[in-house]
Amino acid sequence: MSRRRVSIFGATGSIGQNTIDLIARDAEGYEVVALTGASNIDLLASDAKRLRAQIAVTADEQLLPALRNALAGSGIEAAAGEAALLDAADRPADWIMSAIVGAAGLAPGLRALRHGTTLALANKESLVTAGPILLQEARARGATVLPVDSEHSAVFQALVGEDINAVERIIITASGGGLRDWPVERLAEATPEDAGAHPNWDMGQRITIDSASMFNKAMELIETKEFFGVAPDRIETVIHPQSIVHALVGFNDGAVMAHLGAPDMRHAIGYALNYPERRQLPVDRIDLAQLAKLEFHAPCVTRYPALRIARAVMETGGQAGCVFTAAKEVALDAFLAGRIGFMDMSGIVEASLDAMSSKIGLSNAALTLEDVLQTDHMSRQTAWTLIEQKR
Ligand code: NAD
Ligand code: MG
């Protein structure tokens, strides 16, 4: 059998490294085309050498000399910058992992779909920002998009062989994040260090903080609406502190299918890598008797205003998701920089949505990537202005 050609966008991150872990276990099975990263040049170069990639690309043009240096003598090409990321997405591949963090992941994923390449989508911002554009491109090119977010992979798996019209509801579970046991009154004081520790999952810094604020879950609710095409009132979330049940799908006959597994992203990545087959994966097996209990409870909206905002974004549709993602990224940057508090992030996002709604109206869908990038840019400026005004 010929080797499968794979590229990994965001190879140096948490999802990227887990993807590499799976691929490196079957080195003969894969031909690695492109690996991309941003600042961690040593890791990017050493993985490119280990996996014998054709090309390594850093998003940061200033780091091209360092990357060239690190790859000297290996025969592996080095490139840098946004255009180089798109060129890498043009290289023929059978499967691409989209694991850049943030809205920056959209353009390379969209470019890969143009070639009909199967897209394993970890970058949830792509769907929240431009779901219809992305999925339309996939349909037009006959390309498959596979969700890698654990909850969406779980829903996808529960839907195999089912009729989407028989789905009554989709329930996405949430761990509650690193601050779930803090008193609500103290949340305003939480620092990036406090919010950056997750009880169950080992993930990148940004998504871990988004878990504590539940902006991550808010994104996932919108992602669910976009990917599976179900109405917002059929999408729910429930707190499940053990992170063993990743999602549940309720059908019109009252049956509920749940997906269970250890909290290890290699499940969802491996499912997307092996799809439509299932193969052995090096993940822990769950032991229900040892787990003893699985708890579920409704999320408190005072603690997690992001969930309320997600509902409004889903109801509005159109460009609301793009504004939401951009404002959330800016608010997170400001929180990480110590400029605003943990609970201020939701206020900035909500005020950005209001301001952008007055400026451009949100319910009309963006039709092109350029429209999306323009709204993204304007939303970021709006959010920064609001942050400045707070000071
Ligand atoms: P991370 O921060 O660990 O890694 C991000 C990757 O993107 C790195 O390779 C980094 O070099 C690259 N990158 C950062 N900024 C970039 C830019 N401007 N241009 C190009 N590349 C850039 O993030 P992660 O936790 O691996 O998450 C990646 C994506 O997957 C996110 O969208 C996240 O929401 C999603 N996701 C992650 C997990 C998880 O367990 N980590 C689970 C579900 C979904
Ligand atoms: Mg998730």
The name of the CATH topology of the largest domain is Rossmann fold
Number of discrete domains: 3
Helix content: 40-55%
The bound ligands are:
nicotinamide-adenine-dinucleotide, magnesium ion
**SSE topology string:** EHEHEHEHEHEHEHEHHHEEEHHHHHH
What does this structure look like?
It is a single chain. The protein has 391 residues and is of the alpha/beta class. The protein has 3 domains: 4-147, NAD(P)-binding Rossmann-like Domain (Rossmann fold, 3-Layer(aba) Sandwich); 149-263 and 284-305, no CATH class; 317-391, RNA polymerase sigma factor, region 2, helix turn helix motif (Rna Polymerase Sigma Factor, Chain: A), CATH 1.10.1740.10. The chain is 47% helix and 15% strand. The chain has 16 helices and 11 strands. It has helices spanning 14-24, 41-50, 64-71, 82-90, 106-114, 124-141, 150-158, 192-195, 205-213, 215-228, 266-274, 288-291, 305-316, 320-336, 344-360, 369-390; strands at 4-9, 30-37, 55-58, 77-80, 95-98, 118-121, 145-147, 167-174, 235-239, 245-251, 256-260. The strands form 2 sheets. Strands 4-3-2-1-5-6-7 form a 7-stranded parallel beta sheet, with helices on both faces. A 4-stranded mixed beta sheet has the order 9-8-10-11, covered by helices on one side. Strand 3 (55-58), helix 3 and strand 4 (77-80) form a beta-alpha-beta unit. Helix 5 (106-114) packs parallel to helix 6 (124-141), helix 6 runs antiparallel to helix 14 and helix 14 packs antiparallel against helix 15 (344-360). The longest helix has 22 residues, at 369-390. The structure holds nicotinamide-adenine-dinucleotide (NAD) and magnesium ion. Nicotinamide-adenine-dinucleotide (NAD) binds at residues 10-16, 37-38, 59, 99-101, 104, 122-125, 149, 201, 203-204, 206-207, 265.
